[in-house]
């Protein structure tokens, strides 16, 4: 069992925050006179502050060495911590946060999403990161039912997927990115899956599917079942990227998002066909933690994703990814 660090209780209300300012000046200047001048106090006032600090820390903090003053080992050890506290205080009370500088940042962004979204948006995101933030890193994680909790606890910065209105808790923000529709996918030389197939033909065809629990992207299975269409599901694969390999080497067909079908058709001998019924469109949205909405880095990331959507539309229109 790991030992935990026990910090004794401190009565913070009995500590004057001005002493932190005085302490920082004394540690930086190593002189009562110069420290007083730095913060705009009189020399007696700074001397009084040093006396109080020595009592609080039970340490002299500044000692005379020859003709100069030097920090004690305790004072040397606390100097970085005091500087960090001063930085935090300045950020807390200094008004607006500094802007995010992607070119100078080494931050790692974590996005939970689906294979469908990865295929469509990743090329554009990679391009922006390479140009705007060469030292930034992007980690893509699988989107699952824990997305809201992962956003709340900071495991991920953004989630992208099919999040219907009302599906997310109130503290998780949501913004739509793009819509898509469903189409059939078959090998290019398929004898009957072409144009718009009729319902009887569609139901009689063998189908390759991705199980509902593995889709997470507004898959068509539930929508088709709700219309009373019974399909002959011949094979189920764990990942949507396996569908084109199954379909291109057989007479099986699949039902996929239209942009996904176009992407597969541009890479393999496949074609899309119209379904014999209408299905509601898929809406892909991004979601984020409302409590960290004002974080400049995360706001920049949301802007990058939003800007990537028009480029994605143009790429898929030309049947390239």
- Beta-strand residue percentage: 15-25%
Structural class by helix and strand composition: alpha/beta
> Unreliable runs, pLDDT <50, ≥5 residues?
1-7, 213-217
Summed up, the helix count is 12
* Average pLDDT metric: 85
CATH class of the largest domain: Alpha Beta
Output the radius of gyration: 30 Å
Give the count of structural domains.
3
The CATH architecture name of the largest domain reads 3-Layer(aba) Sandwich
Largest sheet features: 5 strands, mixed
Order of helices and strands: HHHEEHEHEHEEEHEHHEHEHEEH
How many DSSP E strands? 12
Helix content: 40-55%
How does the overall form come out from the CA principal axes? rod-shaped
Q: Can you say what the CATH homologous superfamily of the largest domain is?
A: Periplasmic binding protein-like II
Features:
3 domains; alpha/beta; Arc Repressor Mutant, subunit A; D-Maltodextrin-Binding Protein, domain 2; 321 residues; rod-shaped; 20% strand; 12 strands; disordered N terminus; 12 helices; five-stranded mixed sheet; three-stranded antiparallel sheet
Summarize the structure.
With 321 residues, the chain is of the alpha/beta class. Helices cover 42% and strands 20% of the residues.
Write structural notes for this entry.
The relative contact order is 0.13. The chain has three domains: 77 residues, Orthogonal Bundle (Arc Repressor Mutant, subunit A); 107 residues, Periplasmic binding protein-like II (D-Maltodextrin-Binding Protein, domain 2, 3-Layer(aba) Sandwich); 99 residues, D-Maltodextrin-Binding Protein, domain 2 (3-Layer(aba) Sandwich). It is of the alpha/beta class and 321 residues long. Helix 1 packs across helix 2, helix 1 packs across helix 3 and helix 5 crosses helix 12. The longest helix is centred in the last third of the chain and has 22 residues. The protein has twelve helices and twelve strands. A five-stranded mixed sheet has the order 4-3-5-12-6. The N terminus is likely disordered.
């Amino acid at each position: 069992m790991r030992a935990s660090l026990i910090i004794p209780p401190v009565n913070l209300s009995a500590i004057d925050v001005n002493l932190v300012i005085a302490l920082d000046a004394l540690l930086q200047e190593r002189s009562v006179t110069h420290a007083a001048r730095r913060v705009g106090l009189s020399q007696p006032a700074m001397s009084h502050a040093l006396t109080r600090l020595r009592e609080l820390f039970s340490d002299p903090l500044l000692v005379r060495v020859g003709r100069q003053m030097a920090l004690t080992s305790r004072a040397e050890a606390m100097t970085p911590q005091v500087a960090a506290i001063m930085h935090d205080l300045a950020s807390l009370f200094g008004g607006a946060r500094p802007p995010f500088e992607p070119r100078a940042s080494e931050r790692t962004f974590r996005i939970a999403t689906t294979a469908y979204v990865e295929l469509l948006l990743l090329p554009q995101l990679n391009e922006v990161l390479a140009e705007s933030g060469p030292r930034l890193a992007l980690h893509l994680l699988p989107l699952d039912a824990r997305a809201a909790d992962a956003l709340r606890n900071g495991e991920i910065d953004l989630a992208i997927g099919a999040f219907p209105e009302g599906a997310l808790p109130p503290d998780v923000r949501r913004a739509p990115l793009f819509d898509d529709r469903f189409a059939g996918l078959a090998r290019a030389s398929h004898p009957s899956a072409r144009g718009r197939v009729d319902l009887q033909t569609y139901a009689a065809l063998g189908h390759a599917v991705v199980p509902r629990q593995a889709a997470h992207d507004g898959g068509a299975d539930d929508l088709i079942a709700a219309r009373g269409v019974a399909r002959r599901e011949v094979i189920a694969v764990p990942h949507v990227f396996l569908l084109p390999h199954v379909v291109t080497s057989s007479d099986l067909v699949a039902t996929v998002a239209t942009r996904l079908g176009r992407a597969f058709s541009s890479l393999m001998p496949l074609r899309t066909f119209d379904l014999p019924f209408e299905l509601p469109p898929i809406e892909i949205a991004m979601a984020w933690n409302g409590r960290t909405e004002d974080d400049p880095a995360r706001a920049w990331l949301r802007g990058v994703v939003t800007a990537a959507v028009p480029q994605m539309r143009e790429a898929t229109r030309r049947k390239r990814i």
